[in-house]
Amino acid sequence: MRRRVPGSIALRGSALRRGQPMFGSSSLRRCRALLSRSTLFRRCSGSRCCTMRSGSALLGSRTVFSCGPLCRGCTGACGCALRCCGALRGHGAIGPAMSDLQRAAQEALFCQTILAKSGDNVLLETLRGAAPVTWAHYPPGDVFDPDSGAQWYYHCHDASPHAAEHGHFHCFIRPQGKTGPIHHLVGVGVDAYGRLVRLFTVNHWVVGDDWADAATTTPLLERFDVHMARPSYLVNRWLTAVLSLYQAEIAQLIAQRDACLDRHQPPEGIATREDRSLEVTSELMVDLAARAKALGV
To answer: Which residue in 24, 114, 246, 294 is deepest, having the highest Cβ count within 10 Å?
Structure first.
């Protein structure tokens, strides 16, 4: 009986036993390990021959995993030949290379496509049937990944179906863990149909995080990586992909935030970062489908 792992490659019977090689020795000589970053696995840690940081079991250090549509590939620190996804066909053939931006766009679109098959989108999947209450956090208690320190919540501003922006995801990083400082990265605005429409930064009083300037905040962007099953794995991966796809633009928005605050002249006796008259400090309207098309995805 054949079993499958994400990415559609069937693992052959005896290869399911720990430590057994798959696809023949010739393929293993070409590459000691091929490890995808599919929907269930993080990228290679760079340790001995592509051991995984996540996933419940390793089938031995020479195991070959399939390369699924969400793969980001091995970092290459272990000497693995795999750089990106495509499909692994036959005896471990590697598909054409993709850039990080292409993979991020592909992952975001893939998540949207899977949700759409059941009549869902990232907004519906986040609310899970709840009638949105303005300013309430969804899901209650936020989402936090203890491995990466990534945290997010969604809240609604205008629930009308014709609103340009229904609400937004606020994305944060806790670099020292759940009880440590928290830094706001970006707001991700979506319309009533869950379509990405805007990226923006806010003044300090809006989110009340531990303030950090652009020089400190920007390097934290690449740490936003959410692998949590709830409230929705697809929403978590979609958000991760969006921040990866637009990382350069978000870095610019953070720099513009600091410049905006430097220029701002608040009323006497009020600190700039506490001035309620200044909420959004920088923003960028975005179109995910157009960006993906421009990247050839």
So the answer is: 246
